[in-house]
Amino acid sequence: MHPNETRIFLAILTGVLVIIFLIGVFIISAIYHQKQNAQLKLAQLSVQLKALERERARIAADLHDDLGSSLAAIRLQIKHLKTNNQNDAAIIDEAKSYIDEAIQKLSYVSFNMMPLILQRNGLSDAIKELTEMIELTTAIKIKCDCTVDIGDNDRRIHFYRIIQEVLNNIVKHSKATAVNISVSRNERYILVDITDNGIGFDKDRIIKNSIGRGLKNIKSRVEVLKGKSYLSTGINKGVHYSFEIPDTEHNG
Ligand SMILES: Nc1ncnc2c1ncn2[C@@H]1O[C@H](COP(=O)(O)OP(=O)(O)O)[C@@H](O)[C@H]1O
Ligand SMILES: [Mg+2]
Questions:
Q1: Maximum separation of any 2 CA atoms in the chain, in Å
Q2: 215 CA: nearest ligand 1 atom
Q3: How far is the CA of 202 from the centre of ligand 2 (A)?
Q4: Separation of 169 CA from ligand 1 center, angstroms?
Q5: Which end of the chain is less enclosed by CB atoms within 10 A, N or C?
């Protein structure tokens, strides 16, 4: 090769290498920034959810302690009312049943806001109470194999909210008669499995049309828990959810 040609060849080669190097640096820094952004968004989401749950717990406690005890006091007063007049007795009875209904509704709203049992007894008891409430008010039979508990309070709330939303959807949309819930733990993960035998749904259509907030909320909480979720369903195929969440309590 002529020395001039060699020089031109080397110059082109150097140029190409520099361009490849710059493209590499650009791609690596873009990936790095994308990762940083994703981590920042996740941290913000986690803070938002924490604030939301703190507010819910405060409202639930206010409802239970303040309004709940006022209603209980009114009920006690009414119980002590005595009359020989039949009309008045009927009105007192009616008032008693309205108060009972209000107490019942209040405890339901406060339970939905933040079940006290979740903090006091843990995840399995809270899920059991939730499923018992559903069985009392619907024709759905629920089999629950949930003996696992989660030590960290924030994580426990995420698990509970995920299961609560799945069960709310079953009650609201599924027409199911049977539901199976299992929460188990292996050496690395906590596994949550929920199936219903209802009408199922067209997953692609629902996700594409961005219908509802429940499924998005589930996704956000699974992301904060750094887990994975699998949803298998179809028209008349029931619904099967499965969540695989890293068990930070065993793996640090
Ligand atoms: N278990 C289920 N059975 C049948 N359809 C369901 C079930 N879970 C969710 N869906 C469908 O997915 C949609 C989105 O659910 P979601 O995001 O929780 O919103 P929302 O409950 O507010 O409608 C529901 O409107 C319903 O059509
Ligand atoms: Mg929903």
A1: 125
A2: 17
A3: 15
A4: 5
A5: C
Residue nearest to atom 11 of ligand 1 (CA): 201
Cβ neighbours of residue 60 closer than 8 Å, sequence gap 6 or more: 110, 111, 113, 114, 115, 116
Query: CATH topology for 120-252?
Result: Heat Shock Protein 90 (3.30.565)
From 173, 205, 210, 218, the mutation candidate for ligand 1 (largest count of ligand atoms within 8 A of CB) is 173
Indicate whether residue 215 lines ligand 1 (CB < 6 A): yes
The predicted-structure confidence for 115-149, as pLDDT tens digits, reads as follows 999 999 999 999 999 999 999 999 999 999 999 98
In this structure, the residue with its CA closest to atom 23 of ligand 1 is 212
Q: Which residues contact 55 (CB under 8 A, 6 or more apart)?
A: none
State pLDDT tens for residues 9-57. 999 999 999 999 999 999 999 999 999 999 999 999 999 999 999 999 9
Region of poorest pLDDT, from 18-22, 59-63, 142-146, 230-234? 59-63
Domain parsing of the chain, residue ranges: 1-114, 120-252
- CA-CA-CA-CA dihedral for 212, 214, 219, 224, to nearest 10: 130
Q: Are 75 and 99 in contact (CB under 8 A)?
A: yes
Give the SS3 label for residue 115: coil
The reply to whether ligand 1 has any atom less than 6 angstroms from the CB of 241 is: no
What is each CA distance from 49 to 14, 178, 234, in whole angstroms? Answer: 52, 31, 30
Q: How many residues does the chain have?
A: 252
Phi, psi (5° rounding) for residue 223? -60, -45
